[in-house]
């Protein structure tokens, strides 16, 4: 039987330490993976002069599944977001951001279970048509939504809801103002929703969505939206369960997927054994689910849950005093 190869991109800052945590745990689970390591971000730039070397792209293309730490894009003109580049290069049209309450965190809510599904390649966030006038006084950018792109992401949301036994899908938009782009997205969302009569379909303007998420988040189940709105909403949802350290992310295409910690590289604590690896561990859970290893995914999620609920060797952001390695060891012991 051929082993599944995983492209591992440690990333920058705290990335290598939290990725090492996830790899140790995946080995303990006896998933039968082979790990191919590759560089990207500032680490790659310092080594090769490229933020995203061709060798890394080739490994992602070859293995079809990648686990990625946070990446740093140098600040300055001409540098394109590496994450945006990867999403476009491999047509990773669906960004999947689940948030789930774990007892033992410092979250304000206890019963959150929301999945935000964000279109990943179009809209304002894609950076299309960015220009700045010669005098520096006027900046422009272009937002483009296609019927094909909208239908693909909304269908993905409903199919996921159906597969996981979810009851409701909320399409989030700004069609009252952005009548062309957001209007097309909402029109397509209504059409797709009509094909799934067993799932409740609702729609909500994005600003109201943000308010409702703060006031009554339990009303949400699956949220589907466009690129920029999804970027903002998914971080808001992370705040409901304790912050970005508790929020994993998956970028999924037709035949390729990249799973990642969604927080930054935190260079100020790099190399100090302080980082919480939960985000990338939960991204590993997503990866296991994607590969059809649901039993192992459930085991890992439950192990993380038990560590956090009992407060056994948790990191500072979770109210404990342990480091990355101690937290990892606590999860390994439960497995």
From TrEMBL:
Annotated signal sequence range: none
Keyword Oxidoreductase: yes
InterPro entries given in the database record: IsoCit/isopropylmalate_DH_CS (IPR019818), IsoPropMal-DH-like_dom (IPR024084)
Keywords linked to the UniProt accession: Oxidoreductase
GO molecular function: isocitrate dehydrogenase (NAD+) activity; magnesium ion binding; NAD binding
Any one Gene Ontology BP term: tricarboxylic acid cycle
Keyword Oxidoreductase listed: yes
EC number: 1.1.1.41
Pfam families: Iso_dh
Residue stretches making up the Isopropylmalate dehydrogenase-like domain: 5-331
Family: Belongs to the isocitrate and isopropylmalate dehydrogenases family.
NCBIfam families assigned to the protein according to its UniProt record, in alphabetical order: PRK08997.1 (NF006529)
Protein name: Isocitrate dehydrogenase
Species of the source: Catenovulum agarivorans DS-2
């Amino acid at each position: 039987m051929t082993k599944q190869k995983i492209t591992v991109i440690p990333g920058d800052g705290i990335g290598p330490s939290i990725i090492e945590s996830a790899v140790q745990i995946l080995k303990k689970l006896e998933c039968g993976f082979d790990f191919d390591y590759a560089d990207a971000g500032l680490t790659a730039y310092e080594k090769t002069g490229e933020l995203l070397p061709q060798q890394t792209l080739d490994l992602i293309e070859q293995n079809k599944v990648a686990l990625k730490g946070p990446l740093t894009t140098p600040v300055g003109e001409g540098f394109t977001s590496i994450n945006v580049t990867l999403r476009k290069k491999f047509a990773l049209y669906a960004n999947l951001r689940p948030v789930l309450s774990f007892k033992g965190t410092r979250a304000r809510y206890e019963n959150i279970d929301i999945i935000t599904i964000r279109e990943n390649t179009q809209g304002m966030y894609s950076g299309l048509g960015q220009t700045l006038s010669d005098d520096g006084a006027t900046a422009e950018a272009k937002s483009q939504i296609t019927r094909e792109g909208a239908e693909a992401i909304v269908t993905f949301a409903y199919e996921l809801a159906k597969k996981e036994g979810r009851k409701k899908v909320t399409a989030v938009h700004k069609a009252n103002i952005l009548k062309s782009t957001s209007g097309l997205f909402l029109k397509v969302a209504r059409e797709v929703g009509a094909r799934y009569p067993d799932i409740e379909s609702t729609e909500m303007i994005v600003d109201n969505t943000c308010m409702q998420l703060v006031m009554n988040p339990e009303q949400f189940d699956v949220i589907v939206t466009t690129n920029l709105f999804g970027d903002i909403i998914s971080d808001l949802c992370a705040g409901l369960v304790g912050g970005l350290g508790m929020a994993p992310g998956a970028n999924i295409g037709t035949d390729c997927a990249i799973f990642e910690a969604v927080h930054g590289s935190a260079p100020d604590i790099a190399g100090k054994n302080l980082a919480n690896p939960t985000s990338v561990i939960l991204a590993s859970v997503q990866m296991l689910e994607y590969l059809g290893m649901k039993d192992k995914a459930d085991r890992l999620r439950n192990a993380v849950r038990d560590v956090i609920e009992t407060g056994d060797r948790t990191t500072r952001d979770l109210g404990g005093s342990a480091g990355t390695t101690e937290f990892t060891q606590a999860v390994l012991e439960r497995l």
